[in-house]
Specification:
heterodimer; A: about 325 residues; mainly alpha; MetI-like fold; two-stranded antiparallel sheet; 14 helices; 2 strands; B: about 300 residues; 2 domains
């Protein structure tokens, strides 16, 4: 629309110039109101978090500047180191399992020959279940007496287990619950990717004698790389900042086996009321997420786009 | 599907297939699609179904864990939940906060998305980036400084604190979705409307919004989802029982019930999840299509 982007160089009278100026402010008037909320609340919170992280707070929220003291005490705390390690294991397991499951489900939904719309719609249902509700449901699937898993084990005559009482098993249940919650969205993103691949390529490859597995790794994966990147961003974002699910599933237990960084942050800030150290953990969560997202964005989405540009100048 | 069939045919045409290979070839489709599909259905539905079935059982039956279907289904647990003191208030809170956190972000982001999609102006990339960055900020990480900030402002335990934080986190999401949909509307249609004398408001109302309506519906459903399911903010910013939303109330139920009445617990869970699932099922087609087409990121 050229009329909207016209600059004022061909205006003659002052009145026209003012009208042009008014027109030029229109896009800002449209964009700014939303931004006030985003910057005012989220931006201020991030800024405030950084400020808070270099202050010591007492019970009445009086602040005194202490420099990097909070960072030093948090990083030297063995409990923090353990929770960071746990988070990394949790994220790696969740991403691996989550992406494999999403890919299997996406391929299944792509190939299924009947009731496609129904299965697609159904596969997204967990996306709409709140983290708390998902955790409560999973707790009830794995609970010792009355849980679904132990019910099935009992019926087929296998020994039952106290899933949520054992540190290792509880950790795995937390990973599973996290996957249940985040896989559906990643599945549909990957399904969208699969649908963009031209079927003729597969036909040509089949004629050349390529096996299904070869085609998957050498055609499908490279062709859907951007969607793979988007679903990886989603999956690691959810896993890294997981809170609701662990909070309601195990609350960090048993024996701190599931105390990830976000749980530890909540405990430090809201139970021990040390907001300064809590803010340090915000900085930690934020930095990890930013670095990971930028990495995926660069590796999967932008690198791909640049290649496209080079290929078609 | 064609591809699958030709491959199956081919494998049967291969010379001297072993018995196992032959058998695998014949049932290939079943193994490659049937089994994962069965797993997908069980994996997706079991947690919800198990909670639903348990909500119809009596507590002792759940504890014994000897039945799959309830022996004598009863809605007693739902009656108990509905009679909980404050349940009506929690539903009211959830509906109110979700409604505000859907309508306001939609209005703001329709405006912003139109600005980004149709105008060339200075700093537009920077401004768009400011809308994008919040998408990679984990919401839970902000609860510490937000609690500090809102305490200073005296907003703890008010609806305002929930409105502000929910709106702020919904605006980037819906703007990002709508920019894509608005850009996809052909400029020619809008230009012909301009020639017919339509001003910006009319173009937006009568040209852009009707064409990009699936995007608006998708953005609305995702805003509703964010608002209805939000937990970290309400946990950190609200302490009064009467100000809780449903997810928070569900979480607190664990502590408030001395006896582990699993039937009531599950009935409560189902009741918190159900309204949003109904909204989703009504608008399922548009939401799924938007996600599959890559419009939601």
């Amino acid at each position: 629309m050229p009329s909207l982007t016209k600059t004022s160089n061909n205006s003659t009278t002052a009145r026209e110039r003012i009208a042009d100026l008014a027109l030029a402010t229109v896009p800002y008037l449209m964009v700014i109101p939303g931004l006030i909320f985003v910057v005012g609340v989220l931006g201020y919170a991030v800024f405030g978090g950084f400020v808070l992280s270099v202050h010591a707070t007492d019970m009445f929220l009086n602040k005194t500047f202490v420099g990097l003291q909070n960072y030093i005490s948090v990083f030297n705390d063995p409990r923090f180191q353990a929770s960071l390690l746990r988070t990394i294991v949790f994220v790696v397991l969740s991403i691996t399992l989550g992406i494999v499951m999403s890919m299997v489900f996406a391929l299944t939904l792509y190939h299924v020959g009947f009731a496609r719309r129904f299965f697609r719609g159904m596969s997204l249902v967990p996306y709409f279940v709140s983290g708390i509700a998902a955790a409560v449901m999973f707790r009830f699937v794995f609970t010792t007496s009355g849980g679904f898993v132990n019910y099935v084990l009992q019926q087929i005559g296998l020994p039952t287990a106290a899933w949520l009482g054992d540190p290792y098993l509880a950790f795995m249940v937390a990973v599973l619950a996290n996957c249940w919650f985040m896989v559906p969205f990643a599945t549909l993103i990957l399904l969208g990717g699969l649908q963009t691949v031209d079927r003729d390529i597969y036909d040509a490859a089949t004629i050349d004698g390529a096996s299904g597995i070869q085609m998957f790794f050498q055609i499908t994966i490279p062709m859907i790389k951007p969607m793979l990147g988007v679903s990886l961003i989603w999956v690691s974002y959810i896993s890294f900042s997981t809170f609701d699910i662990i909070f309601a599933l195990t609350a960090g237990g048993p024996q701190r086996a599931t105390e990830v960084v976000s749980m530890y942050m909540y405990r430090i800030a809201f139970l021990q009321l040390d907001f300064g150290q809590g803010a340090v953990l915000m900085v930690v969560l934020l930095s990890f997420n930013t670095v990971m997202s930028l990495f995926y964005l660069y590796y999967f989405v932008l690198a791909d786009r640049r290649l496209e540009k080079e290929a078609s100048p | 599907m064609n591809r699958q069939m030709t491959r199956t045919e081919e494998s049967t045409l291969r010379p001297e297939p072993g018995i196992l290979q032959d058998w695998l070839g014949r049932y290939r489709r079943f193994f490659l699609i049937g089994l994962p599909l069965a797993f997908l259905i069980i994996w997706t539905m079991v947690p919800i179904l198990w909670a639903f079935l348990a909500s119809l059982k009596n507590p002792l039956e759940i504890y014994e864990s000897s039945t799959f279907f309830p022996r004598s289904p009863s809605l007693a647990a739902y009656q108990t939940v509905l009679a909980i003191d404050g349940f009506g208030k929690w539903i009211f809170n959830s509906v109110l906060v979700t409604a505000v956190a859907t309508i306001v972000p939609l209005i703001l982001s329709i405006l912003a998305a139109y600005g980004f999609a149709r105008y060339l102006f200075a700093f537009r990339h920077v401004l768009l980036l400011l809308y994008l960055i919040p998408r990679i900020i984990p919401r839970v990480s902000l609860i510490v400084p937000l609690n500090d900030l809102m305490t200073d402002l005296g907003l703890i335990n008010t609806y305002w604190v929930l409105y502000l934080t929910y709106i702020a986190s919904a605006v980037p999401l819906s703007t990002w979705i709508l920019v894509g949909f608005f850009r996809a509307v052909p400029r020619e249609i809008e230009e012909s409307a301009t020639i017919d004398g339509a001003n910006m408001w009319n173009r937006l109302r009568h040209v852009i919004l009707p064409i990009a309506w699936p995007g608006v519906v998708t953005a609305a459903v995702l805003c509703i989802r964010e608002g209805w399911n939000e937990f970290a903010f309400v946990l950190a910013l609200v302490t009064e029982t009467g100000m809780r939303t449903l997810p928070y109330a569900l979480y607190m139920l664990k502590d408030s019930m001395g006896v582990q009445n699993y039937a009531v617990y599950n009935a409560f869970t189902i009741l918190t999840v159900l309204p949003l699932l109904i909204v989703y099922l009504l608008l399922e087609r548009r939401v799924v299509e938007s996600i599959v087409s890559g419009a939601v990121k």
